[in-house]
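REQUEST ID: PR-0412
SUBMITTED BY: lab tech R.K.
PRIORITY: routine
TASK: structure prediction, single protein chain
INPUT:
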Amino acid sequence: MHAHRWSIPGAVLLIAAGTAQAQDQVVHFTSADGRPVTLHSGQPAPDHYGPPPAFDRLDANRDGYISRDEAEAYPPLVNDFDEAVRHANRISKAQYDHWVQTQHR
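STATUS: complete
OUTPUT:
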């Protein structure tokens, strides 16, 4: 990978063009007042949480449902909580099983 020197307008164009690329990029340019600037861009590393846990492991109070608080124990589930509950405030075992089947491995 090689560095480029750009003016601020050139860097703005490069940033806009580079957003569609998944590779990390380093761009060197000079600001309007003549100071050197280095821009690092790219995607963060994905989090790896492992496979979804069994329903019973998340249902901490053993009421047969997973609440939002209980879903916090598995971040991918809490991220999808509103979609998984389908207008309720808790996830049933059937809803959880469906959510697990839709996850990309």
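NOTES: The first strand starts at residue 5 and ends at 6.
REVIEWED BY: pending
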